[in-house]
Design brief:
Layout lengths: L14 H7 L3 H12 L4 E3 L6 E3 L1 E2 L6 E2 L6 E2 L14 H13 L6 H8 L3 H15 L9 E8 L17 E8 L4 E6 L4 H11 L5 E5 L15 E5 L14 H18 L7 H13 L7 H6 L10 H10 L1
Parallel strand pairs: 6-9, 9-10
Antiparallel strand pairs: 1-2, 3-4, 4-5, 6-7, 7-8
């Protein structure tokens, strides 16, 4: 067994580094300010002039030195109107981005001291940042997965109430992955996802499910080759689905071991979390840094900025 550390130095981000870079809420707020308005230079909605804004003591805002109008770096982000300290938010982002198989809300509760409800909401908000729309080039492997408890393991009053949730997975060989919750494993559910997620003429490898035969005739010149699992064949020259099966294994073991169960209405957000980490496993930058850079993204624009944009039109 190879017991040497295999994580490249460029991907490491230790707790010691985190504490040095973000020792308090002021450092976190300044990070948000610089990412959203580099150099502190922002458009003043009252003056109509871009100028450097300065921190207002005791508040999470910056003020124009001429008219005193305030701007709020946290407005519209996942931190908007949150009373939880920014250092706690940033620490949760670090935990969720550096784990291999996931971290539970109970673990967040124990490590940060927030309530379980707060921990759950914070993780839900961070998963919003992990969602992304990408197009895969190919060659890709495609397979459907089914998530949900085994009927024999359920309590009697829960049996038969909820069928397993169907998920379509598409993964590039040694590349990125897309996992989408779909209503069922039929043509009308699968083909729109393929059309949205793949470039034309991509080579597709699947198992022998009949629904995948339609991929040749969807008007995008996709090439398709299947491997017949029913006949006990799992590798046929370049045709196999080992990569996507490996991703399913990672997700299912993570959910089973960390979260125990995930409701159908939340499954997509958990898939986004696993796909985010999987897609960046070979990027030579700390995953925490990559996720933190998304925090200035506005989930909902602030009233002031909406008003300024409308006036600009």
């Amino acid at each position: 067994m190879n017991r040497r550390q295999t994580i490249p130095p460029q991907q490491k981000y230790t707790t010691k580094q985190f504490q040095a870079e973000f020792p308090n809420d002021s450092a976190c707020l300044e990070y948000m300010m610089q990412k959203r308005w580099p150099g502190g230079i922002a458009l003043c909605a009252e003056c109509g002039v871009e100028r450097k804004h300065y921190r207002v003591t005791g508040r999470t805002c910056y003020a124009c030195p001429v008219c005193g109008s305030h701007i709020f770096p946290l407005a519209g982000t996942i931190f908007h109107k949150s009373t939880t300290p920014l250092t706690t938010w940033f620490y949760v982002i670090k935990l969720m981005s550096t784990t291999r198989v996931g971290v539970s809300a109970k673990q967040i509760q124990r490590e940060t001291g927030v309530t379980y409800k707060t921990a759950w909401r914070m993780m839900k908000q961070v998963r919003i940042l992990m969602a992304e729309k990408i197009k895969l080039i190919g060659p890709v492997e495609m397979d459907e997965g089914y998530f949900g408890g085994i009927e024999s393991n359920k309590h009697s009053h829960l049996r038969g109430r909820a069928a397993k949730t169907t998920v379509l997975g598409i993964v590039e060989r040694k590349g990125r992955v897309i996992a989408k919750v779909i209503p069922d494993a039929k043509k009308d559910s699968i083909l729109p996802v393929v059309r949205e997620s793949l470039h034309p003429k991509a080579m597709i490898y699947t198992d022998g499910a009949a629904v995948f035969e339609q991929l040749r005739w969807m008007g995008q010149s996709h090439k398709h080759k299947a491997v017949n699992h029913a006949a006990g064949v799992y590798v046929d020259d370049f045709a196999h689905t080992n990569s996507i099966e490996g991703f399913w294994s990672l997700v299912k073991r993570g959910i089973q071991g960390v979260y125990y169960q995930v409701g159908p209405e939340y499954l997509q957000s958990y898939l986004n979390e696993y796909a985010f980490r999987y897609n960046r496993r070979k990027v030579m930058r700390p995953m925490f840094t990559q996720l933190l850079e998304r925090t200035p993204m506005q989930i909902c624009p602030s009233v002031r900025e909406t008003r300024a944009l409308t006036a600009g039109r």
